[in-house]
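ok new one. same drill as before - C-alpha cells go in, u give me an amino acid for every spot. 374 of them this time. try not to just spam alanines like last time pls lmao
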C-alpha cells in the first residue's frame, strides 16, 4: 500500500498546522512568506523570505526520490491555493484535500466497492460517515463545498463523487428549508444511497463511453428499483422512497413507477434537484463556460421537467446568495467580483472589476468562480 496514504492527516509545528503539497505546485519566483519542510514535516527545506527558483524547485522535487511532496503551513497552503499561478486543476485538488472532501470520497468509494451490503448497509454503520458530512456542512464555507462539487470527474470516480455530492447538496437544501436535524440527516443519507442500485448494473453499461441502446437504457433505468431492494427494511422509509423515486417527475413522465404529484414524496423531490444539479455541473468540460450560474439559469427556465417549482426557487434563491460577492476569474484573465446575479438571467451576472461595473456577455464572461478568499 502507498505509504503516503497511511500518514495521519494532521501535522503541527508549535501548534501550527502543516499540510502536504506537491512540490510541483510551487513556481519560479514565489517568495516564501513562511518556512517549508520535507514530506515528513521534520526537515526544514527552505526558510521564509527565500525565493523559489527553477533550480531550487528541481532540487526540492528530487529531494526524496519518488516523494515529491513537501509540507507547508496552512496559511501558505491557502495562499498557494488561491494564487493565479496555480492551475484550476491544482487549485481543485488542493481544495478537495483541504476541506476533507478527498477523504470522504475515498471512504465512500471503499464502501461502494464492497458487495457485502448486509455488513455496512445500515444506519449504525453509516452514522459516523453521515456525522462527518454533517460537520462539513456546519463548519465549511458552502462555496468551498460547492467548489469541490462543481468539477468534472473521471469515469471511475463517478458514482462515489456523485453520491457524496448529492448527500452534501441534500444537506444544504434541508438547511435552507429549515428542517430539523433528524430530517437533515435523513436527506444526507438519502443522497448518499440514492444511486446505490447502480452498483448492481453491469460495468459495461454503467460506464459506457457512448449513448446507451434502448435495451441498455432499460437496464440502467432499473437502478432506483435495485436501490429500493437493497435498502428495504434497513433504513427509514423516507430514505428508501427517495432512492426509488428520485427519477420520478411530478407530471408522471419519470421512472421507474411513473407516479405523479403528491405520490412523489418530499425527500425524492429534494434529491431530484441535487441529482440534476450535480449531473449538470460535472458534465461540463473545463474549456466550456458552463458554470453553476449557467445551471441556475436552466433550472429557472424550467429546462428540467417535473420538478417541484417551490423547492427549485428556494434552491436558486440560496445558491444566488452564496455566489454573490464571490471572486471570479474572467475570460480576459483578470479577476472580478460578482455584484449581482439576476434571477431571470443568472448566466449574465453583474461584475465589478477595478472601478468598472458591467454585465457579462458572450465576449466577456466568468471562466471560474474562485473559492476561499480569492
Ligand atoms: Fe439515479
Amino acid at each position: 500500500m502507498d505509504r503516503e496514504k497511511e500518514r495521519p492527516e494532521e501535522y503541527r509545528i508549535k501548534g501550527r498546522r502543516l499540510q502536504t503539497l506537491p512540490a510541483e505546485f510551487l513556481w519560479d519566483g514565489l517568495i516564501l512568506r513562511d518556512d517549508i519542510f520535507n514530506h515528513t514535516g521534520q526537515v526544514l527545506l527552505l526558510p521564509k523570505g527565500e525565493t523559489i527558483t527553477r533550480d531550487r524547485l528541481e532540487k526540492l522535487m528530487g529531494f526524496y526520490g519518488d516523494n515529491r511532496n513537501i509540507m507547508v503551513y496552512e496559511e501558505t497552503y491557502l495562499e498557494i491555493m488561491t494564487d493565479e499561478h496555480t492551475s484550476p486543476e491544482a487549485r481543485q485538488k488542493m481544495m478537495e484535500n483541504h476541506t476533507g472532501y478527498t477523504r470522504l470520497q475515498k471512504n465512500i468509494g471503499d464502501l461502494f466497492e464492497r458487495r457485502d451490503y448486509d455488513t455496512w448497509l445500515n444506519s449504525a454503520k453509516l452514522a459516523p460517515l453521515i456525522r462527518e458530512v454533517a460537520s462539513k456542512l456546519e463548519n465549511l464555507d458552502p462555496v468551498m463545498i460547492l467548489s469541490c462539487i462543481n468539477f468534472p470527474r473521471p469515469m471511475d470516480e463517478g458514482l462515489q463523487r456523485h453520491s457524496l455530492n448529492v448527500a452534501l447538496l441534500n444537506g444544504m437544501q434541508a438547511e435552507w428549508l429549515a428542517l430539523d436535524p433528524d430530517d437533515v440527516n435523513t436527506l444526507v443519507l438519502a443522497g448518499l444511497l440514492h444511486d446505490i442500485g447502480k452498483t448492481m448494473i453491469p460495468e459495461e453499461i454503467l460506464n459506457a463511453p457512448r449513448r446507451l441502446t434502448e435495451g441498455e437504457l432499460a437496464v440502467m433505468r432499473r437502478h432506483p428499483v435495485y436501490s429500493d431492494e437493497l435498502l428495504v427494511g434497513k433504513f427509514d422509509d423516507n430514505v428508501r422512497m427517495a432512492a426509488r423515486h428520485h427519477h420520478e417527475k411530478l407530471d408522471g413522465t419519470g421512472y421507474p413507477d411513473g407516479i405523479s404529484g403528491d405520490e412523489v414524496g418530499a425527500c425524492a423531490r429534494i434529491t431530484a434537484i441535487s441529482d440534476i444539479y450535480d449531473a449538470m455541473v460535472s458534465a461540463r468540460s473545463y474549456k466550456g463556460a458552463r458554470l453553476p450560474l449557467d445551471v441556475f439559469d436552466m433550472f429557472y427556465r424550467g429546462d428540467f421537467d417535473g420538478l417541484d417549482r417551490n423547492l427549485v426557487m428556494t434552491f436558486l434563491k440560496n445558491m444566488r446568495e452564496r455566489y454573490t460577492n464571490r471572486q471570479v476569474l474572467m475570460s480576459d484573465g483578470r479577476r472580478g467580483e460578482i455584484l449581482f446575479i439576476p434571477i431571470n438571467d443568472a448566466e449574465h451576472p453583474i461584475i465589478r472589476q477595478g472601478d468598472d461595473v458591467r454585465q457579462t456577455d458572450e465576449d466577456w464572461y466568468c471562466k471560474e468562480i474562485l473559492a476561499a478568499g480569492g
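The mean pLDDT is 87. and btw The first helix runs from residue 3 to 6.
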